From TrEMBL, chain B:
The lineage of its organism: Eukaryota, Viridiplantae, Streptophyta, Embryophyta, Tracheophyta. Its main location: cytoplasm. The keyword Transferase does not apply. It comes from Herrania umbratica. It is found in: Cytoplasm. GO terms for cellular component: cytosol; phagophore assembly site. This is Autophagy-related protein 3. The keyword Iron does not apply. GO terms for molecular function: Atg8-family ligase activity. Belongs to the ATG3 family. GO terms for biological process: autophagosome assembly; autophagy of mitochondrion; glycophagy; nucleophagy; protein transport. PANTHER family: UBIQUITIN-LIKE-CONJUGATING ENZYME ATG3. It comes from the Eukaryota. It holds the Pfam family Autophagy_act_C.
Amino acid sequence: MAKEGSGSILQFAPFQSSVDEGFWHRFSSLKLNKFGIDDSPIAISGFFAPCSHPQVSNHLTLLAESLPSDSNEESSIPAFSRGNRNRCSVPGILYNTNTMESFHGLDKQGLLRAEAKKIWEDVHSGKVLEDSSVLSRFLLISFADLKKWSFHYWFAFPALVLDPPATLVDLRPASQWFTLEEAESVSAACNEWRNSSVTADVPFFLVSVGSDSRAAVRHLKDWETCQYDGQKLLFAFYDPCHLPNNPGWPLRNYLAFICARWNLKTVHFLCYRENRGFADLSLSLVGEALITISQGWREHQCVPNAVGWELNKGRKVPRCINLAKSMDPTRLAISAA
Amino acid sequence: MVLSQRIHEAFKGTVERITGHRTVSAFKEKGVLSVSEFILAGDNLVSKCPTWSWESGEPSKRKSYLPPEKQYLITRNVPCLRRAASVEEEYEAAGGEVLLDNEDNDGWLATHGKPKDRSDVEENLPSMETLEIRHNETVRSIPSYFGGEDEEDIPDMADFEEADNVIETDAATLQSTYLVAQEPDDDNILRTRTYDVSITYDKYYQTPRVWLTGYDESRMLLQPELVLEDVSQDHAHKTVTIEDHPHLPGKHASVHPCRHGAVMKKIIDVLMSRGVEPEVDKYLFLFLKFVASVIPTIEYDYTMDFDLGSSST
C-alpha cells in the first residue's frame, strides 16, 4: 500500500458539496421575507463527518440549519445541535447575487483569496488552537432565481498551497502502521473522543502512542506537552475521503498550519475514518509528509496562494438545481388536485 | 397523487389531530409503538449505530407529542452502489429466492426474489405516483432536477465555461472529480447514488415510517420518482409512495406504514416462538431489517445482528 510513495507529490482528494433541499427552502424564505435585495454576505455553516463507509466519501452538507433562522421568535441554533458527531460544523460564507450577470461577474479568485486570508490569520493568531474548525472554511456564491425556483451556485473550499508541494514519504492503512496492540488502543481512544459531546465535533486533534502501546487523543493546543511523553505523535483529522491512496482536503490547511506554527519538516498524519460510526483503522491512513517550503512562505504578511473551487462533473462550471416541483405554488396546486 | 390517497391522507390527518397518542404498550400484541417507546427505541438505535442521529427538523412542522430535539431519526450519505432493479434481474437469473411467508400476500421478508408469475398482478394495483420501470431496461445515467423537462429557461452553463477567473493549476489536487462507483459496469456509468434515510413516527399507524431522499452521482438531488429504482420492484408499485415529509420540505419517497404493525407483529411472533423475548428498545433494529427487503441496495446501518432465522428449517 505504500504505493510508489517516496518522493511523490502528496495529492489531496477535493472536498465535495451536497445541498439539502431544506437549505434552499429556508434560503428562499429568508430572501423573500428578510434580506430582500440586500446582497451582503451571510455567515453560514456547513456540516461534515469523517468518512463512514469504505465506498463513499462524506460531503460538506448544507441543511436548513446552515442558515440563520427564518422565524424571528426562534433563537438561532439550538444548543442540542452542538456536539452532534454526525454534524461537525464548518464556517462558511454565502454571497448571493440578485442577477445572473452579477453572479457571473463575481471576482471568484478575489473571494477565494479573502477566505484564505481568514484562515491564514487564524493560523497566525493561534485561533486554530482554540477552535480547530476554522481551519476548514468554505465559500458559496449563488444566484437564486425565485421566479423560476432555480438556484445557481458554486462552492469553494479554500486551501492554502504549500510551495513547493509536500511530498509523500509513506502512506498506508493505519492498521498496518500501528502494531496490533497500538491499533486497538488508538481505536478505543478515538471512539471515546467521538462519543463525548465535548469533542465529537472537533475535527483536528493529536494522537500520541506511548512506548507501552497506550494511545491518547489530545487537543492541538497540547502539542508542546505531548512532545515528550509520546514516542509516536500523529496529527489526526476527520477525513471525509474514502480513497485508499489519498488523504482528504482538510489535511491541506492542517499541514499549512503545522508548518507555519511549528515549522516541522516531517509530519506524521492520521486520516481518521470510520465504518458504520466506529473507528476503522484499515480504512484510516497514516502518512508521512515532507515539507520543504520556500524562503518566506511562513511570513505572516504574505498570504499563500489558495485553490479550491469545486468542479462540476470535472468542469469549471456552476451547479444549478430547479425546485419548481416542490416550491411552485401553481404546480403544487395541480399535483394536489 | 391519486384522489383516494389524498382523501385517506385528509382522514388520517383528522384522526391524528383528534385522538391522543398511544400510551399503553401494544408492542407484542400488535407490533405497534407508543410515542415513548419510539423515543426509547430511537435512543437505542443512535447509541448502537452512531451514524444515526435525532433531529428537530423544520420548526414549523414540529409535533408537540415528540420532544423538540427528537422529532425524527436520520442517517445521511448512505451509499447505494447498484440499482435494485438490476439486482433483481440477477436474482431472478439465479432462480430467485423463496418468500418467507406469502400466505397473506405480504411477503415482506423475502429478500430480493420475485415470483415470475406475478406480472399480471400489476394491472390491478392502485396507481400511485410511480414511475414505470421496466426490468429489461438498462438503467441510464439519471438527470437530476437540472435537466428536467422545464429546462429551457435555464441558461446553458457551458456558455460560461471560460471561467476566466477560476484558473487553478495545482499539482496537489487529486484530479478525480466525483464519486467513483465500486463496480463500474460495462457501459462505464457511475452508479453510486447516496441516500438520506429518515425515520419518523406515524401517529395514525403507531409505527415508525421510513423516508428516502436520494442524490445522484454528483450529489444533486434526485427526483423522488427516480428513487423508486432503488426500491424492490415489488414494492415500488405498491407500498412505496411519494409524499410530503412530516418534518422536511419537499416530496420524498416513503415506505407506506399501513402494513408495518402487522409485519412487525409477525416478526415478533417468530422470535417468541423460538423463545426469544423481543425487547421494545430493539424495535428499530428489527424494523430496519425488514425495511432492508424493500430497499435492498441502500446500505444503511442496522449493525445489531439478530437471528431472525429467515428460513425456519
